[in-house]
Design a protein that fits this description.
The complex is a heterodimer of chains A (574) and B (227). Chain A has 574 residues and is mostly helical. In chain A, 70% of the residues lie in helices and 3% in strands. Chain A has 17 helices and five strands. Chain B contains two helices and no strands. Classes of the chains: A mainly alpha (574), B mainly alpha (227). Chains A and B meet through helix 1 and helix 3 of A and helix 1 and helix 2 of B.
């Protein structure tokens, strides 16, 4: 049988390949490796960069550290330099301190001495109650202290030293001035209160029943004085209070007791009262008892003396009344100088006697006045001056014991021993001297010197220097009114009474009445030769009174030495 | 006022203060300079940090590229799997044809030989059929095995690709964070610059105060001498 062949494709099959897959997978791995390689390089760069950054930061930190160290080093250097300067300065300052304090010590001692002396000088004449004395002194002291402090002290310790010493001195002087003023004020208070005590003592002496009021017044016045005394305080005030109160009360109580004793002649029963007995001790009580007994006796004597005193007082009243009657009723004719007697003179003179019946001198005084009045009514009589009487009246003008009175002048006039002119002049002088007495040793010596210059005495011969006596009287009549007028006006020159100074007021007033030795002898001898004592009286009538110096004009004047020229400052022969 | 220890103490203090002022000025200048250098270092460090970020991004790009190829390889493996299926079915067709031809030939030969259908002929036919069935089974099984291999290969590459992309994403995230750090480092550098300026100002003020204090002490010392 035929064999019919068919196409046999064989063992066909599809065979998938791994090539592509493996290639792709291999490519993937390679790509990853490449990228990783690049990334690794970048990482390395990054690490390097970071390391660079770290190193840079380290440089920065080190720079900072360097800055800190440099700053510290410079600061330390400054500190060391400063310490050196401070150390050197300390040494210099110590040296300067020592130098200034050494020099300041001496100046301080001088200042202390000076200020102490200044205060002593100030307080010596200070008013104890002036509150400004201490403060004013301290104000001035402050200036001195400031001056001391501000000169020579230019270091701090020096100034501190000066400050401390100035403060100490200020404190010392403040205490001293306050203490001294307090002491002075205390002493002044003691004196002032002593016056109060004396016044209160006098009060209770006169009125012992007022003793309680006096003691209360002492306490209140003392407290008031102490409270208002600007310089008195503290212990000084307490001390003054204690002393014033105790001593004052003692004085008042004792004075009251004595006053009581003097009034009653008995011991006061209240003196043993505890309220007062603390101010009186045992011996004083015994003294009071003795005094009471003595006083009882004395009172009887006083009664008698009182009567005498009353009579003396009445006499005084009579004299004062007589003076008033004379002044009121007697005037002088300006033309003739003769007295003009008012008719009331006699009536009032008699009333004077009636009103003072206890006055022993009343009768004689009135009699003298009446006699004088009657003599004045006898116009025919023209009595002339008796130089002796006139000289006596003039001498007693300046007597402190028995001065010339108007009654003395009246008596002399009534007895015909004093001219009307002299009566008028001397009456005026008496009135002047009653208003302003010129007494005392200076005046006594001055008058004696003037009299010695104008009156010749002790010549060893009988008789008197009648002319000199008259000149002396006229000098007194001229000079005394001028002197008193200037004295009242306050225009007296310091040498007014200097008789040795030719330019003095008294020497100028004496000049017209001075005489040469020959004139004195002639006048004295003429009086021995029977010259009438009335002759000087006549000269008064022809020689006008010389005006006072301040009213005198240059020219010719009639003087006891004859006609002389007044130059304005002195007398010269024409 | 007067000359005293205080005078020289003032002079000492003035000198000390002046030097302290100079020291404070120098200290401030150098510290400020140090801080500026530190700031510069910080900026450089920031640049390094940025380079690190760039490196991460490079790695990420590499990972992505690698993943893409793995994707491609996976696709190819999937294609091979399809090819294997096609090849298996093709071989099965060819095997069926061969089996059919063989058994047909045997039947024709038997028939031609006249042999009955029983006996040896039947045996031959049955053996051929059994061999054919075996061959067909083996072929089918082989195809399944090969497809499974390609399937596993494709899956493996897909896994690698996915891992590469995940890694790239993580690296990109890290790069981003690293950039943030670099930015903060820049800000830190700016603060360091400001600190440097402030340090300079403070130092200058301290120096001025020291100079002023020194001047006052000097004036005080002079005044204590003349007043």
């Amino acid at each position: 049988m035929p064999r019919i062949e068919t196409f046999d494709a064989g063992n066909v099959a599809l065979h998938p390949t791994e090539t592509g897959v493996e290639a792709t997978a291999g490519a993937a791995r390679r790509i990853g490796a490449f990228y990783n390689q690049q990334a690794g390089a970048e990482e390395m760069l990054a690490r390097e960069t970071e390391r660079l950054g770290g190193m840079t930061q380290q440089v920065g930190r080190e720079t900072e550290q360097l800055g800190a160290e440099k700053g510290q080093a410079e600061t330390e250097a400054g500190r060391r330099i400063g310490s050196s300067i401070a150390a050197a300065g300390d040494v210099a300052v110590k040296y300067l301190d020592s130098q200034q304090i050494s020099q300041g010590s001496k100046a301080y001692a001088d200042l202390l001495q000076t200020t102490t002396q200044q205060w002593n000088d100030t307080v010596k004449n200070a008013d104890p109650n002036n509150p400004h004395v201490a403060t004013d002194f301290m104000a001035k002291l402050d200036d001195q202290l400031e001056n001391f402090k501000n000169n020579g002290f230019y270091t701090e310790n020096g100034q501190k030293w000066a400050e401390a010493h100035v403060e100490a001195l200020r404190q010392h002087m403040a205490e001293k001035t306050t203490g001294d003023m307090a002491t002075l004020a205390g002493q002044a208070a003691m004196v002032n209160q002593q016056q109060t005590v004396n016044s209160l003592s006098a009060t209770v002496h006169g009125d012992p029943s007022s003793i309680d009021f006096a003691l209360a017044s002492l306490k209140s016045s003392t407290e008031g004085m102490l409270a208002h005394s600007p310089n008195l305080s503290g212990t000084a005030a307490a001390s003054a209070r204690s002393e014033i109160m105790q001593k004052g009360a003692e004085s008042i109580v004792k004075s009251a007791a004595i006053g009581y004793i003097e009034k009653t002649g008995k011991m006061p029963d209240w003196v043993t009262d505890p309220k007062y007995s603390k101010y009186v001790n045992g011996p004083e009580l015994q003294m009071f008892e003795r005094a009471a007994k003595t006083q009882a006796k004395a009172n009887a004597l006083v009664d008698k003396q009182t009567q005498v005193a009353q009579r003396q007082l009445a006499d005084l009243q009579v004299h004062q009344g007589a003076t008033k009657v004379i002044s009121d009723n007697i005037t002088f004719d300006p033309q003739t100088g003769q007295p003009i007697v008012d008719p009331k003179f006699f009536k009032q003179a008699l009333e004077l006697a009636r009103n003072n019946p206890d006055a022993p001198s009343a009768a004689e005084t009135v009699r003298t006045m009446m006699n004088w009045g009657e003599s004045q009514q006898n116009k025919g009589a023209k009595p002339a001056d008796d130089p002796a009487v006139k000289s006596d009246l003039m001498d007693r003008m300046f007597s402190a014991d028995k001065p010339t009175t108007t009654l003395d002048l009246m008596k002399a006039r009534a007895e015909g021993k004093l001219s009307d002119h002299s009566f008028e002049v001397m009456h005026g002088l008496v009135q002047e001297l009653q208003t302003t007495p010129l007494k005392g040793d200076i005046w006594k010596d001055t008058i004696a010197a003037v009299k010695g210059e104008l009156v010749l005495t002790n010549v060893g011969l009988p008789g008197k220097d009648i002319t000199g006596e008259g000149n002396y009287a006229k000098w007194a009549q001229t000079f005394i009114p001028q002197y008193l007028a200037q004295s009242r006006a306050g225009t007296l020159p310091p040498n007014a009474l200097d008789v040795k100074d030719p330019t003095s007021m008294i020497s100028q007033s004496m000049a017209p009445f001075k005489r040469t030795v020959q004139q004195r002898a002639q006048d004295y001898l003429s009086s021995l030769g029977g010259v009438s004592p009335a002759a000087p009286g006549k000269r008064e009538d022809v020689m006008p009174a010389i005006p006072p110096v301040d009213q005198r004009t240059p020219g010719l004047y009639s003087t006891p030495r004859g006609t002389m020229r007044w130059t304005g400052t002195g007398w010269v022969n024409p | 006022m007067a000359i005293s220890n205080a005078t020289f103490s003032d002079i000492s203090g003035a000198v000390s203060d002046i030097f302290a002022g100079m020291g404070a000025a120098d200290k401030a200048a150098l510290q400020a300079q140090g801080l500026r250098i530190t700031a510069q270092g910080t900026l450089i460090t920031a640049q390094g940090t940025r380079l690190n970020a760039e490196s991460l991004r490079t790695k990420a790009a590499g990972d992505i590229a690698e993943a893409s190829n793995y994707d491609l390889a996976s696709t190819l493996a999937e294609a091979n799997k399809a090819y294997t299926d096609q090849s298996t079915r093709l071989q099965q067709s060819q095997l069926n044809r061969n089996i059919t031809q063989t058994i047909g030939g045997q039947q024709a030969g038997v028939a031609a030989s006249g042999f009955g259908a029983g006996g040896s002929a039947a045996y031959l036919l049955r053996d051929s059929q059994a061999q054919g069935a075996l061959a067909k089974g083996v072929l089918a099984q082989q195809g399944v095995i090969t497809e499974a291999g390609y399937e596993q290969q494709a899956q493996s590459y897909t896994t690698l690709a996915n891992a590469g992309r995940a890694t790239a994403a993580a690296e990109m995230d890290m790069a981003s964070k690293t950039d943030t750090i670099a930015t903060e480092q820049d800000a830190l550098a700016v603060q360091q610059q400001q600190l440097a300026n402030q340090t300079q100002d403070v130092g200058n003020k301290e120096a001025d105060m020291d100079f002023f204090s020194g001047a006052i002490k000097g004036v005080s010392a002079i005044a204590s001498i003349f007043i």
